[in-house]
Amino acid sequence: MNRITYFSLLIVLTFALLRCVNAPVPVPVAPVENGQGVESLLLKDYRPVSVYKTVRTKIEKAKYPVIDMHSHTYALSEGGIDQAIKNMDAVGISKTIILTKSYGAAFDSIYAAYAPYGDRFEIWCGIDYSGYDKPGYGPAAVAELERCYKVGARGVGELSDKGSGLDKNGNPEDKLHLNDPRLDGLLQKCAELGMAINIHVAEPIWMYLPMDEHNDGLMNAFDWRLDNKPGIIDHQGMVDILASAVRRHPNTTFIACHYANLSYDLNQLGELLSALPNLYVDNGARYAEVGPIPRAASDFYEAFQDRIFYGTDMGHDVDMYRMTIRQLETEDEHFYGHDQYGYHWALNGMGLSDEVLRKIYFENANRLFGGPNQ
Ligand SMILES: [Zn+2]
Hints:
It is a single chain. The protein is an alpha/beta fold. The protein has one domain: Alpha-Beta Barrel (TIM Barrel). It is 37% helix and 10% strand. The protein is built from 13 helices and 8 strands. Helix 6 (184-193) links the parallel strand 4 and strand 5 (196-201). Helix 5 packs parallel to helix 6. The chain is globular, with a radius of gyration of 21 Å. The N and C termini lie far apart (54 Å).
């Protein structure tokens, strides 16, 4: 494609995206044949196929048993738990952590649905924030956390703060963030009960950048954009809040999911992990983001191999699991994951060592939370 054609493609894309803000999702365009219609091909419809005659590994199963530290209640609405287990077995997932975000009766019913499947799942609960902006908040939420623990919850999550307060819950004049003293009692109780907290802060950096021709994560960033949300705490501000909460509660274990959304700056993430021994990360739903930087990513995994958990956060599809395993285990280069990820980048495998794989797949989880392979 020459430069003019590429430029016009970007222009078309930009206008198409702007037009689509309040419009229904457009019907996919017909396939382009022999250059017909290529001038109006939208970037979102671009599906390149890698032509390189390099190593292509067909992954069936992970090398070692895997604990998936980041999943949700997908099976309850899609396909059922039996099917989820079949898929897990097909690729070597021995256990899945279900981050329910729930408490009260909702938590109890989710717990009851998974309980018959024993060790294949571990169920984590949420936090009850109701009344956090009124005097006296705390003891009732702590009591509910303890009740969930007694039912069977073994951790807390996924809490989420994309800059407008935890779980978008509440008073716009009084946003609650993870380092708020009103959460001290809860986070202290988590430490006492040995419940780790899975916390999502911010979003990948491309969501904060201008939605223009320079945004190299444009395809996916636009769907999740935050650049048009005035008043939210910015990316660095959210990372700082995470660090201050982790520092404030040294006895509580925190898992910043999605690499704390610092996949674009693994050096900064490394500094955080070095400074904060009770901080861990999971890699859920951030495989595309490290696909273009396999050497930097594998250096990061090597250096922080005791602090990273495998996670998915993308359902229970067999092809999805296999793509994540391929990216971690192989050194395959320049392949695409159009069916799995929103970005349009080519992916590259990290080729992690057996030692690192064992740690991120199950040893770190068992060391922290107990388990048969301790
Ligand atoms: Zn999640």
